[in-house]
Write a structure and sequence with these properties.
Strand content: 5-15%
Structural class: alpha+beta
Strand order of the largest sheet: 1-3-2-4
Order of helices and strands: HHEEEHEHHHH
Radius of gyration: 17 Å
Largest sheet: 4 strands, mixed
């Protein structure tokens, strides 16, 4: 079990509304039950210097609000919600939050700190939405890895296909003691 699995297990214990079945059924409702509202925006009011923004967190009346880019496809929206939930739980300061500041999920790969944060949030969201061990068990039920299996598993968890292939690879890498596998 890696750190993200442990973190997501603790998050589910702390916030029972974030159990996997609830997240699959309606992630917005599950997140709303812990007091975090989610909304959509086309993000067109942001200056182009920011590049493409998948979502952001604003502080409204002392509470974080997740805004998702309305142009994303549905599973990508779910994924961005999970990433921003991870941002709130793992990175958002608990004191001195600036209510006039938006905290963005940027695709800025030139900033080393952003790369680390994006990687952490990707792994958190992947584990929250499609737990590695469960994905691997689903994979085993197919007997072989093919596009139909990946499509079916991705549909079950309502995540992008790359999440499923990365989860299977991660599981195989963990079980082999760090030897890397291609999926």
């Amino acid at each position: 079990m890696d750190n993200y699995q442990k973190i997501c297990n603790e998050v589910r214990k702390t916030y029972p509304s974030l159990e996997l079945d609830n997240i699959i059924k309606d992630i917005r409702k599950a997140v709303g039950l812990i007091g975090i509202d989610t909304r959509e925006s086309d993000m067109k009011y942001l200056p182009p210097i920011f590049g493409f923004i998948r979502g952001c967190v604003f502080i409204e009346k002392g509470n974080p609000v997740i805004f998702i880019n309305a142009t994303l496809e549905p599973n990508a929206k779910r994924y961005a919600i999970a990433e921003l939930l991870g941002y709130i739980l793992l990175y958002l300061p608990t004191e001195g939050i600036n209510p006039n500041h938006a905290y963005y999920l940027e695709l800025d790969e030139s900033n080393e700190e952003n790369i680390k944060i994006n990687e952490t949030l990707y792994n958190f969201a992947a584990e929250l939405l499609a737990p590695t061990e469960q994905v691997y068990n689903d994979f085993l039920s197919y007997g072989k890895l093919d596009y139909n299996a990946i499509d079916t598993i991705a549909t079950k968890y309502k995540v992008p296909k790359r999440v499923i292939t990365n989860s299977i690879k991660k599981y195989l890498d963990q079980k082999s003691g760090g030897e890397t596998h291609d999926v």
